[in-house]
Amino acid sequence: MFSEKVATLIEALSRLPSIGHKTAQRLAIHILQNDRSSGANIAAALQAAIGSVGNCQDCRNLSENTIFCAYGALGTVRRHRAG
Ligand SMILES: [Zn+2]
């Protein structure tokens, strides 16, 4: 029914939390038929974030800094875990 590339896109989307196969199918069709620029923006944003965002070595929050998140990088509060 779908081409190999569309099927691969549906499969990839369906691996996301709370996205079932039918929703993945709807998203793929929507992007390809109606909103290719949003699809391209999502792809670029994912690639940029995956390439540059890691985890703070202290609290494990997402951080673009390679060692500590913005809170930890202040230096005044080294222990900044919630609780
Ligand atoms: Zn942190």
Account of the protein in words:
The protein folds into two domains: 4-52, Helicase, Ruva Protein, domain 3 (Orthogonal Bundle); 53-83, no CATH class. The protein contains four helices and two strands; from the N terminus they run H-H-H-E-E-H. The chain has helices at 4-14, 21-34, 36-52, 70-73, and strands at residues 54-55, 62-63. It has a two-stranded antiparallel ribbon with strand order 1-2. A hairpin with a 6-residue loop joins strand 1 (54-55) and strand 2. The longest helix is centred in the middle third of the chain and has 17 residues, at 36-52. It is elongated, with a radius of gyration of 18 Å. The model has no long low-confidence stretch (mean pLDDT 87).
List keywords for this structure.
single chain; mainly alpha; Helicase, Ruva Protein, domain 3; 2 domains; 55% helix; binds zinc ion
Strand order of the largest sheet: 1-2
CATH class of the largest domain: Mainly Alpha
Q: What is the C-alpha radius of gyration, as a whole number of Å? A: 18 Å
- Give the number of DSSP strands: 2
Mean pLDDT: 87
Short synopsis of the structure:
This protein is mainly alpha-helical and 83 residues long. It has 4 helices and 2 strands.
